Amino acid sequence: MLGYPLGWMIAAILFFLLIFSVAMSTVVIHGSARRVGDNDNAELRIKGLLGLINYHWQLPVIRIKGFEMELKRESSAENIGGKQNDMSIMNLNAEKMMESLEKAQLLLKHTDDLLGWVRTLLGHVRLVEWQWRTAVGTGDAVWTAMLTGMVWSVKTTAIGVLSQLVRLQGQPAVSVNPNFSETQFTTDGQFTAKIRFGYAIYAGIQLMRRLKKVNGTEKGILGWQKILLKA
């Protein structure tokens, strides 16, 4: 069939249709977080290309030890290259937080208009579902009412900020339930966002083009790796 000009034309059309279908396919990002008392849980799932991309990240344990916070992280990825599992425990304290801030500043210097790139990327993200439920109580009616108002203010501000960054599709399901009889704080939320696979690849290429050399650090992805992996 490919020996004829018409056969090559059909093959080329099918190839470009395949590339177009892949580029227009959707990457689905689903996240959830929950805090009940001293128990915390966070989870993130990324799926795309009919399941060929399947990444799962979970933060099942957070323990407070004095002035330190212990985080246990689990992640798994099922991609074309096979399945990978990873688990790590990290102690977060004031020193670690300062190191993270220093790394963030280096990344900003190492990348041309990184914040602009992030804003442009988020502008192509569609937030199709967002639920955020909170229950608060202090045991006192007046203080509970005041705390309820503060939580509502935080949530409405968050909605306003999100509406400026991403494309909100659908009405966010947000609630604050006061508990006037006892002390309580529980909150849980989940979201589902979508982005075109083709634009995600394009954004990655644009990011690589923005990487630059600063203060003797290697240019490009090697510089990023040195900054992120710096002890």
UniProtKB/TrEMBL annotation:
Pfam families: DUF2953. It comes from the Bacteria. Keywords: Membrane, Transmembrane, Transmembrane helix. InterPro entries: DUF2953. The chain crosses the membrane at residues 6-29. This is DUF2953 domain-containing protein. It comes from Paenibacillus plantiphilus. The lineage of its organism: Bacteria, Bacillati, Bacillota, Bacilli, Bacillales.
